[in-house]
């Protein structure tokens, strides 16, 4: 009876089941032919190390290769070597494209990285039928990416092996058993990904606590220098390692304050500030990058932007502002930033100043800060005096300048898909009509003799009683805070009066000190709330800081006009339906000095043109002293710990002719 052996003999196992042609001569028919030797198994090796600064690839990669060679059978030979030096958590599209391996003399020939391995596996002339690695986490640290690579190799007919997993290779035509290997691999992948994610979470929490305690990470930002302290861990302290706080740099700190002042008071653009700093590089030393060889020796647009956007200048330590590892160094939302609860180093600017400076970017967005014509646009025909400051009241967009029939217009023309309801396709308003009404607004409401009487009633009538009550409340809270601090010191001093204090006394003193600290924190919270109310209370006295004079916008140069508009925080909103323009200025205690200076600078050339002596005499006849002789009740930003200055805004609606 015929059996399986006879069937196999007839089929010819060496020909994978295909019948032998009776007309074909085979080598086995030749005299002296020996039995075929065991076939050679061709294997490719895949290796990876995470980072070149924390590991030694010259040791790790050879160790991985040796571990892989030791588990292969005698008839298996590694014929190709693929390895990378990179994180195993990268997306597959970003893997295998680095050049970190070029920095080391690794004693293993390299045929490419993971991308080269996948590309050759899918070619019909590939050099291998198996791929082996030391452990599956060397292929990828993320399960999804590792299984994706495994699936691509499997579709190409290449099996992925791991040295630390049990595996069997196909023998005698039988399919290899992979159930145990598959279970082991999936368990190890889950454990590996859990380990990495857990370590990242713990590391993130550690950095958060590190930040809250005030320690700096990396190079100190411009304006500060490193203040190194011994490391709190004894073992690291013994090796000379230190931690870093920040302290003001005597040369750079004044430059930071200057930059914030220019941005807040004059609302200068980044490049305008950089150009002004470059006029005196000795007094304004430019920043030095982490790699000093990349320094260009002057201020740039990005230097100024980085300084103005860095919250560390407020005295708080801040971390996680950028997604450096997962987001390509993009800026994280402010809600994800980690702040120290209290200031941990000397502040160069107040937190309120920092917030106001960030708001300037919204005002500047989409508009040049430089005065004069746009030199970068060859078709520019004229200077549009009110650009940046004129907005469409129907959609909120900034209107842009356009010339028609030799007249300057401002236009709001949203794209077809972005036109709001009841908004015309395009809105045009002539510049000369706006300038005439703006001159009238300045002449009567801003620089006129009776400007205070023209203020809105809600602003003109300052509740003196409420203001006095708030000031008294601030003084009382400061006294309470000082008294509480004195009580805390006296409570601790009581221990010095007792030679041998018992546990009960120490416990009572600690409890009393905790109560006093909680009481002090409550007083400080109340003080901050009252000061915030004072900050937003209207103050009509600010208008008296501006000179009484006649200013004609159309007679000023563009740079003087823009400086005046920026200092006054001018905004003009035009409503097409009512044909009305609303002019609005805002004065604050932080900007009133710049506003007064800009107004005096704008008045000076007009006085020379119109006869300054007669103008001053008219002011004296009306009982007004020129601004040069009497500055008026200017409110200056007080030192930290005192009540901040207040602000007020004035606006006026006028119908265009």
From TrEMBL:
Residues 221-367 form the Recombinase domain. Residues 600-636 are annotated as: Disordered. InterPro entries: DNA_bind_recomb_sf, DNA_bind_recombinase_dom, Resolv_N, Resolvase-like_N_sf, SSR_resolvase. GO terms for molecular function: DNA binding; DNA strand exchange activity. Residues 618-631 have a biased composition (Basic and acidic residues). It holds the Pfam family Recombinase. The keyword Ion transport does not apply. Residues 467-533 form a coiled coil. Keywords: Coiled coil, DNA recombination, DNA-binding. PROSITE patterns: RECOMBINASE_DNA_BIND (PS51737). The keyword Coiled coil applies. PANTHER family: DNA-INVERTASE FROM LAMBDOID PROPHAGE, SERINE RECOMBINASE PINE-RELATED. This is Recombinase domain-containing protein. The lineage of its organism: Bacteria, Bacillati, Actinomycetota, Actinomycetes, Pseudonocardiales.
